[in-house]
Amino acid sequence: MLKLVQTGTGVFDLAFNDPSLADEDAAVTTLVYAVLFSDAEAPVARVPDRYDRRGWWADPAAGSGLWHLRRQPLGSAARRETLAMVKNALTQHGMTGVAITELPDAAGNVSRVTLQVTGLHNGRQAIVKVPL
To answer: What is the pTM of this model?
Structure first.
């Protein structure tokens, strides 16, 4: 649902492609999805192999480290770490008043996590639901 849009000559950005969203809603949804699904480099202590740490080449700290959390069983400690990581990543990218809530999964699948992200983006209250 993300699409690549050209914003200038040789300049591209991500945009959330959902015509049912207003521009303000699309902006915050794009931010949430781009931050959460861009891979930050994993810490050396967690992934010793340099080539297995991933991370975006232009800025290894950009995005979140959710990918390396998903490589382990999603017990309560990993779920708490996920919530904290999401909140930290979104706060670093300009959202304020961020609150992350894990929503119960109707299917009862223990390896699935659905989050509700609330906070202020450009002074506007936003709520985004994200399945991980």
So the answer is: 0.66
